[in-house]
Each structure stands twice: as C-alpha cells, then as structure tokens.
Amino acid sequence: MFRFQKAQKTFTFSGIKIGGQPGENPPLMISSMFHNKDRIVRDRKGDFDRERAKEIIKKQEELSEVTGIPGMVAMVANSPEEAKIYTDFFLETTNMPFGIDMWVAEQRAKATEYVSKLGVQDKFLYNSITPWDKDIKGQILRLKDLGIRHVVIQAFDDQDQTPAGRVKSLESILAQGADSFETIIVDTSVMNLPSTSFSLVANRLIKEKHGLPCGGAYSNGTHMWKEIKTTWGMDGFKAMDAVVQGMSSALWSDFNFCGPAVTAPRVFPAVASAHILLSTLVYDENGIIYDNPRLPIRKHFGDFIAKLLEGGARGKK
C-alpha cells in the first residue's frame, strides 16, 4: 500500500524535493492569496493591504520551518497587470517559490511572459496545463520558449470522471509534449468533498504507472461544502477542513493546493501530524523511515525513531 514497484520520480523545485515513495518527502503545500473574497484585496487593480499580506507570508514561512512541511504561494489574479503587481511584491517579500493562478489561458500566458522577463523561472511553478486548453501543443512550445521549467498538469476527463479517466487525461496531455519539462506534477482535480477519494485513487494509479508526483486541490472539496458552516458552525468547518487536508495529504499525495494562506495555522500542523502517522505506517509495512531531516517525524520524534530502530519494534512481530 505504501511502496510502489515503479521507480518514483523526485524533482527539486526551488530547493524543495517533491515526489518519491510515500513518506520519503513531506508534501508541498501550495496556498493561495489574492483570491476571490480575500480580505486583503481592496480592488482588482492591484490595491491590497501590503502589511497584512506580509504577515500572512511570514506566518506561512514560520509554520513551514516549525512543522517541516514546505510551502509556496499561488497568487490569484484577474489580469496580467494585476499579476505583475503581486509578483513584484512577492519577490520583494520572500524567497519562497510561487505560482500565478489565472483561469484564462491567454492572460496566464501574458503573466508568464513577465515571469520570464524577470528571469525567475527557477522559483516559478506554472499552473497549469489543462485538458480544457484549446492548443496544448502550442502552449507547451511557448512555455519552452519562455524557459519555463516547472509545470502542473491538471488531469480530468468530463466524459469519464473516474480515477481511470484522470489517468487517460494525463496520458493525452503528456503525449502532446508536456512530458518534456524539468518538473512535472499532476493535479488530479478535486471536484467536491466525496470525489476527493477519486483524486486520491488517481494519485495511486498514476504513481503506480508513471511514477510522477501527484496531488490535488483538497481545499476545493472542503471550501465548496458551504452548508457545513451553518450546520456545524465555524469550529466544525475548521475541524473538517483540517482532517480532510491532513488525510488527503497522507494518501499518495506529493503536494496539496491547500486553500487560503491565512488558513496555514491549521493546515500545516494537520498535514504534519498526518505525515507523522504516514511515516510509521510506512515503517510498519516496509521497515523504512527515510533519512530526510525535514520529515515531520524526524523533527519532532527523533528519540522515538532511535528507539524504534534500535529495538526493532517491527522485528518483534
């Protein structure tokens, strides 16, 4: 369950290792800022609360260091001009990698041109090549011309919404040239809370067949369940969100589009806790706790690991 026979690809993106066998590397958390209803946004022309934005970014950096869970930010923009303002601000504020979240392909292309002009392709994650893009081959050629090295491929099939459909969607996009980038990670498209399981199973299938890092926007499933805030209250919503984000991140996930950066104080600890449990599940199944010093279990339970490896708790079965 927690060991693939297929060799797993591990990419290094802006100093962050992503991919590999379950438990080998902590999952990358990709939070969002400047999204719809983000309170720091005053208008869509680039006016926002810069001090509060800095506080949110610095808090995520702090949580990443404390938990061992790496992080980055995807900045949501409605226009290339807005994206430029956010990009400049982000690069002045932090060394974390970043992405730009824009649904319209033409506008996304213009924002990506600005990233290329700045020469910061090493810390930029292109999000994303999708099955809905009209000219996937042309988009890939343009990205290559701009020196884009790290990309997300979104896998989803409207006609076959099963996990197998996501695998077929990925393979179609890869066959059009998307397999040529330095870093390729696969977003298996969360549509709502219960269908999150389809994305997780798709992660397993893709890792079994192609060895590529997989993950999803697990916050889509939690934040789209709006009724829960009335039925269970905000405390109930926050508890549900933390559980889903943690559990999903531990099941064949190498990254997680984890929702608004302001929620990092609950999401990062939840994911770290889930990964600690994953580490001991991997040990019980395979007798391995990986050497990565950033693993949450190594950061927080070093003494336990030492006793485990010395005494051979697994060997006493």
Could you explain how this protein is built, in words?
The protein has helices spanning 50-67, 80-93, 105-118, 136-145, 163-174, 196-210, 218-223, 227-231, 233-250, 264-286, 296-300, 302-311; strands spanning 10-13, 16-19, 28-33, 71-76, 98-101, 124-129, 150-154, 183-187, 214-216, 255-260. By secondary structure, the protein is of the alpha/beta class. Helix 6 links the parallel strand 8 (183-187) and strand 9 (214-216). Helix 1 runs parallel beside helix 10 (264-286), helix 5 crosses helix 6 (196-210) and helix 9 (233-250) runs parallel beside helix 10. The longest helix has 23 residues, at 264-286. It is globular.
Topology (elements, then pairings):
Layout: E1 10-13, E2 16-19, E3 28-33, H1 50-67, E4 71-76, H2 80-93, E5 98-101, H3 105-118, E6 124-129, H4 136-145, E7 150-154, H5 163-174, E8 183-187, H6 196-210, E9 214-216, H7 218-223, H8 227-231, H9 233-250, E10 255-260, H10 264-286, H11 296-300, H12 302-311
Parallel strand pairs: 3-4, 3-10, 4-5, 5-6, 6-7, 7-8, 8-9, 9-10
Antiparallel strand pairs: 1-2
Helix pairs in contact: 1-10, 2-3, 5-6, 9-10
